[in-house]
Amino acid sequence: MKVISLEDTARTAVDRPGAQNLWKQVPISARDGSPSFSMRVFTVDPDGHTPYHSHASEHLNYVIRGSGALVTESGHEHALKEGDFALVLPHEKHRYRNTSADGPLVIICAVPKEYE
Amino acid sequence: MKVISLEDTARTAVDRPGAQNLWKQVPISARDGSPSFSMRVFTVDPDGHTPYHSHASEHLNYVIRGSGALVTESGHEHALKEGDFALVLPHEKHRYRNTSADGPLVIICAVPKEYE
User: Fold this and answer.
1) CB-CB under 8 Å, A70 with B3
2) What's the CATH code of the domain at B69?
3) Measuring CA to CA, which residue among A110, A109, A49, A78 is closest to residue B1?
4) What is the number of CB-based contacts under 8 A between chain A and chain B?
5) Domain containing residue B16
6) How far does A55 lie from chain B, in Å, by closest CA?
């Protein structure tokens, strides 16, 4: 059993192609003994976004704070706001981006432990 | 891909032994095509709690709102507040309970899709 607050979880900048103004935390993962999946948290600052990418694993998201968009392969933008859940299926190309001028978009991104 | 707000997700009372003042929502599950796990949300009203139980699946939790406790087999209470994450391993006996007098405890409870 483990309990940890988000504010006590280490935060690192995501420095990879396609990422901008992006931070990551990993409160729960296989390193804690989680048998099958992990919970990461991404903070997307204004003008920021994740890479536009796809992969063999799904994402399950919850929006903790802020407003943004989940961008699909066709360019369609699903609006995201606090209290929203999202499911991105394997191989669906996607990007999360912040659409507000003045505050971060903070989202949970749960994935199979093999992905992270 | 699916986006749904918590407020638009159907809510049902949990009526089983050991549950009190407890409500459940399931924003994402295998019914949406989720390949490996589900996100449920439990609302525990004041004086409420989940059953005191254990099972072969893990729980990954995030506290959306309120304050409460994660009670262990020995009776120890890990305090829970908004912004906390928790991991309950398979076969760890546990209960979530609301410790505030005036507001709900609202938590995400992610589980392998075989569990729900």
Assistant:
1) yes
2) 2.60.120.10
3) A78
4) 122
5) 11-44+51-110
6) 13
